Amino acid sequence: MSQTADPVRAAALRLLWEVLEERRLLPEVTARIVAPLDPPDRARAQRLATGTLRWMDRADRALGPFLRMKPWPGVHNALRLALYEIYVDGAAPHGAVSAAVDLVRTMERGQSQAGLANGVLRNVIRKGDWEALPLPRLPKWLRKPLVADYGKDTVAAMEAAFARGAPIDLTVKSDPEGWAERLGGQVLPTGSVRLPGAPQVTALPGYVDGRWWVQDAAAALPVRLLAPAPGERVLDFCAAPGGKTLQLAAAGAEVTALDISEGRMGRVRENLDRCNLRAELVVADALDYRPDRAYDAVLLDAPCSATGTIRRHPDLPYAKTGEEFPALFGLQERLIDRALACLRPGGRLVFCTCSLLVDEGEEQVRDALARHPGLTVDRAAAELPGLAPDSIGAEGGLRVRPDAWPDLGGMDGFYMVSLRVPAEGGTAGTP
Ligand SMILES: C[S@@+](CC[C@H](N)C(=O)[O-])C[C@H]1O[C@@H](n2cnc3c(N)ncnc32)[C@H](O)[C@@H]1O
């Protein structure tokens, strides 16, 4: 890019390149790419990149009739960005087109395509059918298995939720009504507080003194399912960055928080300090963990495809291809077995993933029950208030989806289940 290109849009284009061409996730690359910008411009570059990814499928449909050949990817992304700015972000068409043309001119491989960019964008605007185009669809590699599991209509509803993006939810230590009133938010049916708009959370009352933490309403449910009692020994087996550790500690449990990543564990420590809560922290591979004393309960929030979080991570369907996931399914299975081995007789394991794939939810449970005679599902634990009764599956786990609560703004996709090892004589806890 030359010095004359708008640095914010140029940074957004570099983020798009990393996702679409290098197949990197935004959190891996964003800090480096936006570092030269001022903080407000960093936020804007990120917003432009995530917004463009969220609406990219529709932008491609709008561009399709006017592109005889696929342009060079940098140019293609500049066109997509301009359409996002005009039709979703509310930018004036003239300014967004001229900014896109300027960006294309500064690209080594795009210079000759500046005229094309200008013409194509003007044609799309002249045709004016943006609003009539279908809502953005997921790429085929992900859409296909989801349609097989949930059906076309449900997948379309989930895609509508992905296009809407995600509000900010808080888990409060106490008094959700009071905090909702103070922050201008609303208490959700499951007890989280949803904020209006997209405020800078660190500047809000209650952040510095740790009265609440940011956690999607769906991500707050697994600990409600586990229902920790004060003084219970609970192992949070994949803990970082610590949203669920905070919930467990706030409920008065004696928590051991374990994670393989030292860097991410630093965030658990910071979060606990800010919220004035305590937990024992262990940096280790969960698969190697052999506790001195068994636990009353284990929470296993396993590494997964994260396909339930696409509302906030629209880069995911484009950075991934699905080929990465079977290795995760195998890891989840081994983590479940190790987690069960850390329980006292009669103890419970809450297994959860922020995934929409049944391989990372219902199927894991069926397989675990087959591997561990005597292991049972506590179906009653999944009967949480505020959720549709059909959220509980035949196997007794709770499945929440992004298209839930359409009037309130949805929630992340999550799967969770409470498994209980036999009180005596069973083998479920000993691998
Ligand atoms: C879904 S995230 C956990 C989110 C966390 N429970 C929360 O609520 O904030 C999964 C975590 O698993 C950790 N992880 C992955 N493989 C692991 C392993 N073999 N042992 C321990 N932790 C692991 C990752 O570092 C990551 O922090």
From TrEMBL:
Keywords from the named record: Methyltransferase, RNA-binding, S-adenosyl-L-methionine, Transferase
UniProt GO molecular function: RNA binding; RNA methyltransferase activity
Active site: 354
Pfam short name (any one): Methyltr_RsmB-F
Binding site for S-adenosyl-L-methionine: 238-244, 259, 285, 301
SUPFAM superfamilies listed in its UniProt record: NusB-like, S-adenosyl-L-methionine-dependent methyltransferases
Keyword S-adenosyl-L-methionine attached: yes
Family per record: Belongs to the class I-like SAM-binding methyltransferase superfamily. RsmB/NOP family.
Entry protein name: 16S rRNA (Cytosine967-C5)-methyltransferase
Record organism: Palleronia aestuarii
